[in-house]
Backbone:
């Protein structure tokens, strides 16, 4: 379960709960994509962007514009694969917890 923006890490823990939620959601979608038996044209794009999200989550709080760009690429790549929709929705919810990028 993902936590809201106002929740803080548990005492003694330095990890941002949003980052933990992102890592969990990305891991699930990566597993489900790897197990999906049907090849599709943009699969490698989705795999690359999921790897990028996993790397961002492993290194602390990611940059919001980069998160959103990866999410758009992943959604465009696997959005038509109905079997992956629940896991993709989890990734989107996890990214949404970081908020919107500041307007320039």
Residues:
């Amino acid at each position: 379960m993902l936590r809201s923006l106002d929740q803080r890490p548990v005492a003694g823990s330095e990890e941002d709960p949003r980052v933990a939620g992102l890592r969990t959601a990305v891991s699930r979608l990566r597993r489900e994509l790897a197990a999906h038996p049907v090849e599709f044209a943009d699969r490698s794009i989705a795999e690359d962007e999921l790897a990028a999200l996993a790397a961002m989550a492993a290194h602390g709080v990611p940059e919001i514009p980069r998160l959103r760009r990866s999410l758009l690429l992943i959604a465009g790549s696997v959005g038509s694969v109905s079997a992956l929709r629940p896991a993709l929705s989890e990734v989107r919810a996890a990214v949404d917890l970081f908020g919107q990028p500041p307007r320039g």
Notes: The chain has a mean pLDDT of 87. Helices lie at 17-35, 43-58, 64-78, 85-96.
